[in-house]
Amino acid sequence: MDERIVVAVDQGKSGTRAAACAGDGERRQAVAAGAEPGTTGVHGVVAAVAGLRLPRRPPDVVAVGTTAAPAGPDERGELARLLRHRLGARRVLVAEDSVTAHLGALGGAPGVVVSAGTGAVAMWSDGQRCVRVDGLGPILGDHGSGADIGRAGLRAAFSAAEGRGPATALVEPARQHLGGLGLDGARRLHASSSPTELVSAFAIAVLRAAGEGDAVAAEIAARAADALATSAALAAEPGLAADPAPARPRCCAVGRLMRSEALAAAFTRRATELGLTVAAPHADALAGAMLLATNGPGPAFADLVGAAGH
C-alpha cells in the first residue's frame, strides 16, 4: 500500500520553499526545495513542489501558506482548485502566511504570533477563534514592519543630509542603497518596480546601526518594537481580558527583522510590559504549513483557509 504523501509550501515575496513527508511516525522523511528568488504565485508553488523528491504519483495533501493568498474565502478556494489541478493532488489547502506562521511558531497551541518582514501582522488564537491585527499594507498599516523601519531610516538620512534632522550613521548606507541622497536617489526609489521592497530592504541597515549605538536608528527600532508589541497585545485582548484571567498569553515574534538583537530585545521588554509572555518560536512557517496539511485548520482558522478536494 502506498504511503500517504503530504506536502507543505511556504511562499514569501522573495521565493518559495516546500517540504514533503511520506508515511507515519518514525518512517517520515522530509526534504525541502526552494524555487528561485522572485518565483512566486502559482508558478512558484508548482516549481517548488516539482523540486521535491516525491514518489511517482501526486501528493495526497498540499498545504500552502503564502503572502499572496487572496483575502476572500471564495478567491482562496478558487486558488486551491487551480493548484489542485496543476499539482494533481487529492486535496489542497491555501492560507495566508500569518496562519502558517502561527501554527509553526506555537505548534497549534494558543497564543499570539507577530510576523515582522516587509509587512507586519499579529495573529492570536485560543484554538477555537482567532483575532488578526494589522497586515494592512504599507500605506495604511504594517506598523513596525520592514517597510515602516526602512522608510523612517531613509527619511532620517535624507533629513540629516539636508540639515533639517540630527546627524546619523544612516546617511552613508542610505546613499549607497539608493545611489544618492538628493533628487536622483528619490527618483530611483519612486521609479523602482517594487519601491516597497526597496524601502524595506533598508531596514536591515537601520537595525544594524541601532545595534551599533546610533541614536537615530535606535529610536526608530524602539518605535518599531513598541508598534509590534502593541499589535500583539491588541490581538491577544480576548486572552488578556478573560475572566477569570488565565496565564499571561504566550507570544512569539517571527520574521527576518527579529534576527536583530536590538529589535528583539526591545520587543520583548515592551510585550512583557503589556502583559504577554514572550517565548522562542517552536518552528517556522514551513512547519506550520505541514501542520496545516496533516491536521487541517481546526475551528480557529477554518474561515481563513481555502480548500479544494477531499
From TrEMBL:
Residues 91-293 form the ATPase BadF/BadG/BcrA/BcrD type domain. Pfam families: BcrAD_BadFG. It comes from the Bacteria. Signal peptide: none annotated. PANTHER family: N-ACETYL-D-GLUCOSAMINE KINASE. This is ATPase. It comes from Streptomyces coryli.
